[in-house]
Specification:
By secondary structure, this protein is an alpha/beta fold. It has four domains: 172 residues, Jelly Rolls (Sandwich); 106 residues, Homeodomain-like (Arc Repressor Mutant, subunit A); 112 residues, Rossmann fold (3-Layer(aba) Sandwich); 126 residues, 3-Layer(aba) Sandwich (Rossmann fold). It is 46% helix and 22% strand. It has 23 helices and 19 strands. Strands 1, 2, 3, 4, 5, 6, 7, 8 and 9 form a nine-stranded antiparallel beta sheet that branches. It has a five-stranded mixed beta sheet with strand order 17-16-15-18-19. The two termini are 39 Å apart. The relative contact order is 0.07. Pfam families: HTH_18 (PF12833), Peripla_BP_2 (PF01497). Keywords: DNA-binding, Transcription, Transcription regulation.
Length: 551
């Protein structure tokens, strides 16, 4: 259902010479609502990364959270309205006190004289709109959600009125000159840090540039960017140092000076504190130019304290690696439909001239031939070896078998500790992991889910062992007989799957399941649960602890 409307007759409080360009943009657009979702989430709830196909309006009505968009982060709170654009990748995480959020998917249109009507366009103004918090936001958002869910014959008109009211309130309460001046000045100082991180920079100096007090500047920076000024400056310096270690032959002392540290030993301490390894260990791991051809192999390499020179990266498909390592990996290969983009990926690898290429053994003959022309290739058996054997194979090839043994020892120790705590807390509770894709429902959707959760952690399955096989399709009605104490559900973040998930939750047999009645349905993200690597499995342990021991 599409709902269209135009925002007009904005009153004097947000008009005239004081009205911002943002308010003007709100007024002259034509809107069509595609979907409304009211999210009431407890602490640390997460919405998995989604590749959005329409505009998304996010309005926080209570609590706080974090918005991840294209690898960047923004704080979610009641003083901001976020507008995300088609084509972006977004994910949401609730804060400590939970999060109440209205999410509206909508399209924008503007007058097109040549076409004699309206044509779609993409929002080009600021992504974050600062607003004055007013009670009407929560009231209007609640009304919009209620109208969207009801089956009244007047639903279309009611939703149209509520959405236009929401946009009206947003435009009317956009914070004007004083607030926007502070934000703009703050952004100028952030760009100054980006350009002059290598020079002595103080908060007093930055505050003078922003024409506000040092204390207010520090508080506003943390509130706006979610990080302290000093930590942001340190991150810029360390990131540049890592680039120099990879791309130059400079000595450690010289690199320290280049990025703004006069004391080499202080730089080394800060580097290890930020990165987790010493500068010398980091530089050693970068001497060998390694190209990773398959996304999952990045997780094996990182467990051995090696960083790839080239690897598939994408804010959704390899979100963890993109967020934490994109500045450390000089060459980014395609991770979005990488099996279809293999030719361009191999072309990039050839330009790198790597010492070794890591790939799975699942390539087609043409792809394999081209890859071997780009450099020496180590093929990792996909089905014949489990993840531990794969890790040891990579380590043996790189002549660091001791690193693999050490990592696995620590992993097994962590497994035993976590398993003891889980079994003490969960007792004889039974578990079912399901994956939803399109119209299909699958038990134990990946090897990782089965081997780590049911295998390493020995969590008790709620079904016969024949359903333990990876990617076994099950019918929704079978859930009645399985009836687990807990359900872990992994949902593909695309429209058809999301529609089917919403429909499933409305069925009587779903609502009558024990796990549903006791509020024990747990959403698990694709990253890391669908990745088969050492690093991903360590993160699955963290995810399991978060789900069941941090309540």
């Amino acid at each position: 259902m599409g709902i269209c409307g135009r925002l007009t007759n904005l009153n004097q409080s947000a008009s005239g010479r004081n009205r911002s360009a943002l308010a003007e943009a709100f007024i002259h657009a034509l809107y069509r609502v595609k979907e409304v979702e009211i999210i009431r989430a407890e602490s640390h709830w997460r919405m998995d990364y989604q590749h959005i196909e329409s505009h998304v309006l996010l309005v926080v009505t209570a609590g706080r959270g974090l918005l991840n968009w294209d690898g960047e982060k923004s704080k979610l709170w009641e003083e901001r309205v976020h507008i995300c654009r088609p084509g972006q990748v977004i994910g949401i995480q609730a804060g400590e006190g939970g999060l109440e959020l209205t999410l509206v998917r909508f399209e924008l249109f503007r007058s097109d004289e040549e076409a004699g009507g309206y044509s779609p366009f993409i929002w080009q103004e600021e992504q974050v709109v600062p607003v004055k918090p007013v009670p009407q936001f929560a009231i209007t958002c609640e009304a919009l959600g209620t109208h969207w869910q009801n089956e009244s014959p007047y639903k279309s008109l009611q939703c149209e009125a509520a959405f236009l009211e929401l946009m009206y309130i947003t435009a009317q309460h956009i914070e004007l000159e004083t607030r926007l001046d502070s934000i703009n000045a703050l952004e100028r100082t952030r760009r100054y840090i980006d350009a002059y991180y290598h020079t002595p920079i103080t908060i007093d100096e930055l505050a003078r540039m922003a024409e506000i007090s040092p204390k207010y500047y520090g508080d506003l920076f943390k509130k706006t960017y979610g990080i302290r000024v000093v930590d942001y400056l340190t991150a810029q310096r360390i990131n540049r140092a890592k680039q120099l270690m990879v791309l130059s032959q400079s000595r450690l002392k010289d690199i320290a000076h280049i990025v703004g540290y006069q004391d080499e030993f202080y730089f080394s301490r800060k580097f290890k504190q930020e990165v987790g390894v010493s500068p010398s260990a980091y530089m050693k791991s970068r001497k060998r130019k390694i190209a990773v051809h398959h996304p999952h192999l990045t997780g094996h390499l990182l467990a051995l304290h090696y960083l790839p020179y080239a690897a598939p990266l994408h804010p959704k498909w390899t979100g963890f690696y993109y967020e934490h390592y994109r500045r450390d990996i000089p060459v980014h290969l395609s991770a979005y439909r990488y099996s279809e983009d293999w030719q361009s990926n191999i072309d990039k690898i050839r330009e790198v001239r790597p010492d070794v290429i890591l790939s799975m053994d699942t390539l087609n003959p043409g792809e394999k031939e081209k890859l071997e022309q780009a450099g020496p290739v180590l093929y990792i058996p996909n089905q014949q070896l489990d993840w531990r054997e794969q890790l040891k194979l990579v380590a043996n090839y790189l002549e660091v078998s001791g690193e693999a043994d050490s990592w696995l020892t620590k992993y097994d120790r962590r497994v035993q500790s976590l398993k003891d705590m889980l079994h003490e807390r969960m007792g004889e509770d039974t578990f079912l992991i399901i994956s939803l894709h399109k119209s299909g429902m699958y038990s134990c959707g990946t090897r990782s889910m089965g081997e780590v959760f049911y295998g390493d952690l020995a969590m008790k399955p709620s079904f016969s062992m024949d359903l333990c096989a990876v990617h076994t399709e099950i019918k929704p009605e079978q859930l009645i007989d399985i009836n687990p104490d807990h359900i872990l559900v992994n949902i593909c973040q695309e429209p058809e799957t999301l529609d089917n998930w919403r429909n499933l939750q409305t069925t009587p047999f779903w609502r009558d399941l024990k796990a549903v009645r006791h509020n024990r349905v747990h959403s698990i993200p694709s990253d890391p649960w669908r990745e088969y690597s050492a690093m991903a499995h360590a993160r699955i342990l963290d995810e399991t602890e978060r789900l069941f021991l941090r309540e």
